[in-house]
Amino acid sequence: MEPTSYFDIQIDDPRQEHPGPASRYTVRLGWIQGAPYLIDLGSAGKVLVNTTPIAPYLPVIIQAGDTITIGNTHLSWNPGAEVDEPGGAAQPGRGQEPPESEVPRVTIELPREDVEEPARTLIPGPTALPVEREEPTPAAVPDATLPAPKRVKRKPAAEAPEPTLPAPKRTAQPSSPEPPEDPTLLVPERAAQQPLSEPPDPTLLVSRRRAEPQPPETPGVAGMAPEEAAEPPDSTGVYKTAWVDMAQLLEQGADLEFESTTILRDTTTPHLVFHMSDRTWEVPLAAESVTIGRSRDNDVVIPDESVSHHHARIERRGDGFLIRDVQSRNGIWLGQQRVEEHRLSDGNVLSLGRAKLVFKGGFESDELTLLAPRIDGKRARRPVVFVPGMMGTELWIGSERIWPNPKLIISNVEIYALPGDPRIEARGIVNDVVIVPHIIQSRQYSAMGDYLVESLGYTRGKDLLEFGYDWRHDVRLAAQRLAEAIEEWQTSTPVTIIAHSLGTLVTRYYVERLGGRRFVERVILMGGPHFGTPGGLSAILHGPGMLPFGVGAERMRKVLSTYPSAYQILPTYPCAVDQDGNTIDILKDVSWLPEQQRPYLSAARSFRRELGTTSSVPAVSIFGYGLKTKLRINIHRGPDGPWQKVDFVEDMAGDQSVPSGSAVLTDSEIHPVLQEHGSLYVDDDVRMRLKVELTRSTSWQGRKQK
Q: How high is the pLDDT of residue 365?
């Protein structure tokens, strides 16, 4: 990983008679491999990019022509200036700098006295907790649909074609007479970037760039999903990803490109992750102490009235960290216990008012291995059941594997439609990378079991059950099959279920409705669409002009629209509005569906009523954050009510598939991780949490059977 270079900039408000931390703007401006970025490190006022406020502690990529406003200081970013370096070569020993052809030119406007400081943007929330009132703090409710900054048009450079289709165009959300319940600050919309040759620094979110043109070594169709098991990961632990863009293959015959999509992170550096209902962000623990509170002079500012002006302080103590309450009103809570002082352990989740703080202590890669685990001092292993997500189980007709099978995806995708061939049966966990553009992208699900076997000493069939199911059908049918599989499995109880994506709903229905709570000690739910996902709608909508996708994707969506499970992951929360600002309940409004598909929507509603929103057994919600994810839906209705056009509004608030808020089950423990949806179960941070969960002190007690 190449180093990042940056300037830490502090600017005092010149209008203040006594400048100090309370009136100071603090930002980081830097670049990594030629890509400039900006981070607001907790400034006294709003930091703007092209008149749009940026969220604190969330890095934003800066592009040509962007204007940065820090208080009364204005900077313009102008890359591409030719600069001759003395001596004709780069000086050794310097940090990473942009290539010579991309040396930036920064224009600075000096502060003007007649410019008013923009108001501080605060994020409101519910007020169930006591509110501290010692100092009035002005609160400006942020618009949930702040306009994206205007861009200066640039002439595109000649590059290789993008292997995936463009994302849906964003349109302005219709105005509503009332603000949304949970307004979310949007970061500026960005155009596609060139991919970095190395993953970014763990604290930096950067857009991917397109790969530079390579010599023509196009793999054959069989290379996209070989009949044999996929090649094992390389020395970095990253599997190669086969991008299969059906539309380009069908219409243009474009070359295939391969790209690794799993986000690699430095797991050795301690950091904090803060989680609230509308956003999740992280803060590195680089200093000797970190102060947390609502006032602007804190190192970490949480603009919520349930958090005191000065709430907590974290200090480095030896090789660890200690958190102290600094006389806050609502205190610091570890579970059900209020603590005045606590030595932090990896994975600790503490409540500071409505904010959740998760401590990630850092670990070395060799700590992921524990071949002789002990529980309560005795050598033992918890029996584990793994339930994969959508498209995570192989489908077969006799001796032919039809899923995953790229030849069929391209030539005869209709074979997967329901009711389909009655001979199709689900057999084993998918051992290939699966990517269907705009629909799904996931790593080998078998990699989950490989980790448990190779690093924690599990044995498939003995103390590890990998449950395969036909993911096309109703989730309730899969849950019934899960109940039968666990009952037939000759192992001791209780079991721990690890599930991903759609598999989390299968698991929860088994536990809550089919008596699974008698046999299950704990559920670990990764990327679960517990409250649905707007992206689920994009997977089944089809019709002329409805969405800006190609022919191949249109055929696939028609197939997916025959799956009952596809309707069961639709959002259950209000996230869609029409052009008049009216909220649309996607599960109740049947106008967008043909008559023959409306029973699927009715079945999805009944499924959601039966499932509920909580877990009767201890649960851990592992969820991704900080990646562009579909959050809201703008719908244009026709004169008679049917939908004519749909646009999705995205924000850096999920794992690219499921919004963070939807992936957190009510009253569950949380474990946030900066990772994409289809790679959660191969992430080292997640694997460390699994190791902790599977070796924790037993909590099984003979609970009442219903």
A: 82
Distance CA 531, CA 512 (A): 16
Mean pLDDT of 553-579: 91
Q: Do the beta carbons of residue 660 and residue 280 sit within 8 Å?
A: yes
The answer to whether 122 touches 137, Cβ cutoff 8 Å, is: yes
**516, 483 in Cβ contact below 8 A?**
yes
DSSP 559: H
Under 8 Å CB-to-CB from 504, ≥6 apart: which residues? 387, 389, 523, 525, 526, 527, 528, 529, 530
What's the pTM? 0.64
Residue of 433, 436, 429, 435 lying closest to 389 (CA atoms): 429
Cα 239 to Cα 258: distance, rounded to the nearest angstrom: 11
Q: Is the pLDDT of residue 215 over 50?
A: no
- Closest C-alpha among 436, 431, 440, 407 to residue 231: 431
CA proximity to 429, closest of 464, 476, 474: 464
In angstroms, the CA 69 to CA 61 distance is: 15
Question: With contact defined as beta carbons under 8 Å apart, do 472 and 478 qualify?
Answer: no
In this predicted structure, the answer to whether residue 256 has a pLDDT above a threshold of 60 is no
Beta bridge partners of 386: 466, 498
Candidates 232, 165, 265; CA nearest to 433 is 232
Burial of 178 by CB count in 10 Å (0-12 exposed, 13-18 middle, 19+ buried)? exposed
Q: Does 130 have pLDDT greater than 90?
A: no
SS3 of 130, please? coil
Cα separation, 585 vs 633, in Å, equals 11
CA-nearest of 301, 392, 312, 404 to 359 is: 312
Between CA 575 and CA 585 the distance in angstroms is: 8
Q: Which two tokens stand for residue 467?
A: 């449950």
Residue type (1 letter), 363: F
Cβ atoms 354, 129 nearer than 8 A: yes
Which tens digits make up the pLDDT trace of 387-422?
Answer: 999 999 999 999 999 998 888 887 888 999 999 899
Helix (H, G, I), strand (E, B) or coil at 22: helix
User: What's the rounded Cα separation, in Å, for the pair 456 and 369?
Assistant: 6
Residues 6+ apart with CB under 8 A from 451: 368, 682, 687, 690
How is residue 52 written in tokens? 């749009």
Pairwise pLDDT comparison (205 vs 535), residue with the higher score = 535
Residue bearing the bigger pLDDT, 617 or 187: 617
- The values of phi and psi at residue 42, to 5°, are 95, 55
Helix (H, G, I), strand (E, B), or coil: what is residue 427? strand
- Dist. CA 265–CA 281, nearest whole Å: 15
Q: CB–CB of 612/511 below 8 Å?
A: no
Residue whose entry in the numeric block shows the structure tokens 């409705």: 513
The one-letter code for the residue type at 90 is A
Residues 272-282 have pLDDT tens digits of: 999 998 889 99
DSSP assignments along 440-503, one per residue: EEE--THHHHHHHHHHH---BTTTEEE----TTS-HHHHHHHHHHHHHHS---S-EEEEEETHH
Q: Pick the residue with more confidence: 379 or 150?
A: 379
pLDDT digits (tens, 9 = 90+) for 330-367: 999 998 899 999 999 988 999 999 999 999 988 888 88
**Torsion over CA: 611, 615, 621, 626 (sign):** positive
At 332, is the secondary structure helix, strand, or coil?
Answer: strand
* 442 backbone dihedrals φ, ψ, rounded to 5°: -150, 150
Q: How many whole angstroms separate alpha carbon 580 and alpha carbon 177? A: 10
The two counts, helices (H) then strands (E), for the chain are 10, 37
Strands, sheet with 425-429, edge to edge from the N-terminal-most edge strand: 400-403, 393-397, 425-429
Q: What residues contact residue 650 under an 8 Å CB cut-off, 6+ apart?
A: 167, 170, 628, 629, 630, 631
The encoded tokens of residue 238 equal 């990253």
* CA distance linking residue 370 with residue 688, whole number of Å: 11
Give bridge partners of residue 629 from the DSSP assignment.
651
